[in-house]
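Database export, one record per block. Field names are fixed; values are copied verbatim from the stored entry.
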Amino acid sequence: MNPYAAITGLAKQPDVLKLVGGIISSYAEIEFRMLQIFNHAKGLADNDLTWFQTRMESARFRVFQDTVEPLFHQAGMAREYEAIANALDKCRRLRNQYAHCLWSTGGALRFFSFEEAAKVPANGPMPYKTTSEQLLTDQLNYFVDLAIVLSECIKTLKGDPLVPGGLESAMARLATPVADYVS
């Protein structure tokens, strides 16, 4: 067996590689917009990177939630906050799912997560999950939609919406759920 099969297998699927790369890199766009909302809540400059001094993504996520939830409630945006918090958590889990996985090279489009594999007893079967190009496309679109929602939130919270009614329109995009994997 080729020890590089997982690497070369995904490399032989450039469309899939682009989608997975898009999902992982789009998360940075989401984090940047989270940073801007966090900084607005704290009264900091948009480009202040203090929030990133908090190590570990999950810890930053908790700090973000604790800091911005009151701001959303004060602005009368509690419903939006709940939808955004759920979408952020979903995107964080999806990003981690792909950032910490290996891909199968044969047959169906399958991958396994190191975190899931660590839960399997030694010498147990690898817990492969199946996905599809369509699902990866839907997931990438969900990331882009969330980035748009966060951009609209920043402007709305600052009293300067990008487009009148833009936040409501952008929020509608998050209403369609996206799956983690096919099976």
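Remark 1: DSSP finds seven helices and three strands in the chain.
Remark 2: The mean pLDDT is 87.
End of record.
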